[in-house]
Design goal:
The protein is α/β, with parallel strands linked by helices and about 210 residues long. It has helices at about 5-15, 20-50, 70-75, 150-160, and strands at about 55-60, 85-90, 95-100, 105-110, 115, 130, 135, 140-145, 165-170, 190-195, 200. About 30% of the residues lie in helices and about 20% in strands. A seven-stranded mixed beta sheet has the order 3-2-1-6-9-10-11, sandwiched between helices.
């Protein structure tokens, strides 16, 4: 990890923490609404064009200062045609494993204070992956927290020839446009990025 990336990551973490809590709640609400609307529209478009509709969504359990997706995940989990999963760290330097989740799933505190489903079951590979994103570019480059789990996971799915729509979930203060930022060779770009100000990288259509 370069020193420049470390410094930039600290800057973005500070900017995120300095946001007004009421604005963060409102921003998270807007993001949940946009995701819900997008998925309904996306599924309708796929159905109309004769494509298979996404069934499996890999989300994440928000940490402090991340956009709260909890109410949306609970809403999605109640729908018969969607199956949700959450990421789990099983081994350092390995891809994430996704385990099934719904509102009744017992949770446990795991590495880095992340809440994970308390089960050994493994979910199918996701059709859509919501990715926690600290920083982003307008071309879909992502800066995470420096551990590389999502980059390894996206690369692993690509190596399996499994197509997944990756959507970064970020605060608008994470926009890297005004910074001197170059992604690392191993960084995996995202298809889209959603912020509290709207789609920073446009949502997939079909």
């Amino acid at each position: 990890m370069s020193q420049n990336h470390q410094n930039l990551r600290r800057t973005l973490l500070d900017l995120r923490a300095q946001q007004d809590s009421n604005q963060m709640r409102r921003g998270a609400l807007l993001m949940r609404g946009r995701l819900f609307t997008w998925l309904n529209d996306y599924r309708s478009r796929l159905s109309a064009s004769g494509h298979n509709q996404p069934l499996h969504i890999a989300a994440f359990w928000s940490l402090e200062n991340e956009p709260d997706l909890g109410p949306l995940l609970a809403q999605w989990a109640e729908l018969e045609h969607l199956h949700l999963s959450l990421p789990c760290v099983v081994k350092e330097d390995s891809p994430l494993v996704f385990r099934p989740w719904d509102s009744s799933t017992p949770m446990k505190t795991a590495a880095f204070g992340v809440q994970e489903p308390d089960t050994d079951r493994v979910a199918p590979n996701p059709d859509i992956m919501l990715v926690p994103t600290l920083g982003f570019t307008r071309t879909g480059d992502r800066m995470g927290y420096g551990k590389g789990y999502y980059d390894r996971t996206l690369a692993h799915l690509k190596a399996q020839n499994h197509e997944v729509v990756s959507i970064g979930i970020a605060w608008a203060v994470g926009d890297l446009s005004s910074y001197d930022y170059t992604p690392a060779d191993h960084d995996q770009p995202l298809h889209s990025v959603l912020t509290d100000k709207g789609w920073a990288v446009p949502a997939p259509t079909v």
